[in-house]
Amino acid sequence: MRRARFGAGVLLVAGALLLVAYISAPASKGAPAVQTSGSSATGTHITISNFMFTPMALTVSPGATISVTNKDQVTHTLTATGGQFNTGGVTQNQTKTFKAPMQAGTYHYICSIHQYMMGSITVK
Length: 124
Fold this sequence. Notes:
Elements: H1 2-24, E1 43-49, E2 52-54, E3 57-60, E4 65-70, E5 79-80, E6 95-99, E7 105-110, E8 118-123
Parallel strand pairs: 1-4, 3-8
Antiparallel strand pairs: 1-2, 4-6, 5-7, 7-8
C-alpha cells in the first residue's frame, strides 16, 4: 500500500513540475513557440537538469549535430518516440551527440528511463 501511495505521489509531483514549467514559459506574440539553442544551424545543445530538457522544443537544420549534456545525478536518455535517434544512457556531467534527421518534420522525444520527460525537435 505504501508503494502505491509513493508511486502516485511521484507522478503527481512530476505532473506538477511539468505544469509549472509550461505555465511559467514566456508567451510570445506572433513568434513561433519554438526555442532555438545554439548559435548556428549546424550545432545545437540540449541540457538535462532537474529532470527536464532545456530547451524542450527547438528547430534545427537537417543533419545538424545536437549535443546533449546531463547535469542530473541520475542517467537519462534522449530517445525519439519514432526511433529516429537515441543517445543511449547519458550519465551525470556526460555529453553525447547525435545527428538530426535529414527529413523535415517535428520529432518528439522522451527520456526512456523517466518517460514523463519530453521534448521535440523540428527539422526545417
